Amino acid sequence: MTGVIRGTGSCVPSYIIDNNALSQFVDTSDEWISERTGVKRRHIAAKETTVSMAAEAGRRALESAGLSAEELDLILVSTISSDVILPCAACEVQKELGASNATCFDLNGACTGFVLAYNTANAYLAGGICKNALIIGSECLSNLTNWHDRGTCILFGDGAGAALLQGVEGRTYRPVTHSDGEKGSALTLKSRHDCNGITKEINPLSMTDDAYFMQMDGQSVFKFAVRKVPEAIREVLDINSIRQEDVTWYVMHQANRRIVESVAKKLNEPLEKFPMNLQEYGNTSSASIPLLLDEMNRKGMLRSGDLIVLAGFGAGLTWGATILQW
Ligand code: UT7
Hints:
Elements: E1 2-11, E2 16-18, H1 19-22, H2 30-37, E3 41-43, H3 50-65, E4 74-78, H4 89-97, E5 103-107, H5 113-126, E6 132-140, E7 158-168, E8 176-179, E9 187-188, E10 215-216, H6 218-239, E11 249-252, H7 257-267, H8 278-281, H9 288-298, E12 307-314, E13 318-325
Parallel strand pairs: 4-5, 4-6, 11-12
Antiparallel strand pairs: 1-7, 2-3, 6-7, 8-13, 9-10, 12-13
Helix pairs in contact: 3-4, 6-7
Oxa(dethia)-CoA is lined by residues 28, 32-33, 36-37, 111, 150-151, 154-155, 187, 218-219, 221-222, 225, 255-256, 259, 283, 314.
């Protein structure tokens, strides 16, 4: 048994901040952000929450798969920005959808989270533990962002993406995942506040303790990503005896356009095999891969039989790659 994606969905906040608007908050410019990251704008939650976006993305994935919520037996939400600590976001999504037969839990794998959620759900399906799994990456990173820190606030955005995985007879591909806790200090967050200082009428000047917001050594994370992601992709292709020319798409975590370009170059693959939407959403952590998958699905870019490599990397540090057949 293995999992196949039967449907996808996504949901992003309607409020958009472009680079020029950001330059009112911090000393930056559209030119710098565009050139160094590829990001042009990001969607920021005003009324939306991690759970509301996750539930809407999940609802759309169910619709696209033609399944009812009662048919779900697993809901897995990957997030670092859940609205509350308890109950978990997956149980809240269950409630919203009426998925009364599902087992629900969350997973914190940061920007590798969707790859880890996919692997976990696939293991449940391959092991016959469940038949229909809804996996969701949902993030409200604006609540965790220091809007005074131009090294981070230019990068991140909010949103959710979901995929409906169904167990079928077929080949299971072995994933590759790694962690290095020794390097965890490169990307940290002490705690969280339910405020973003942008849309929730909080005065950003009152936020004095930077440790309560995401702190990132951008260059270290950048160097780690461009070294480890191509290695993980080569490793996952190798252990599954798949050649690069058999891969239709590499769907990478959308952190920075230059990271994606570097990975493509190191693999000697055309950039066209690495779709991107970070210009519109920024870096949405565990939501970025399913957001992009859903966009590709809706655009009709995915054909039956396509081999797709998902690759994620981020806080922990964590990184990994996994193969799926469309
Ligand atoms: O999601 C998973 C984890 N996260 C990532 O994968 C992010 C990885 N890192 C990055 O994407 C990049 O490191 C950033 C986009 C965060 C930063 O880009 P960079 O090219 O690494 O910039 P830098 O930190 O090396 O700074 C270069 C220069 C510095 O000025 P000096 O010292 O050369 O005069 C910075 O002060 O650019 C300056 N700078 C800025 N200037 C305008 C840094 N941020 C900004 C800014 N606007 N927003």
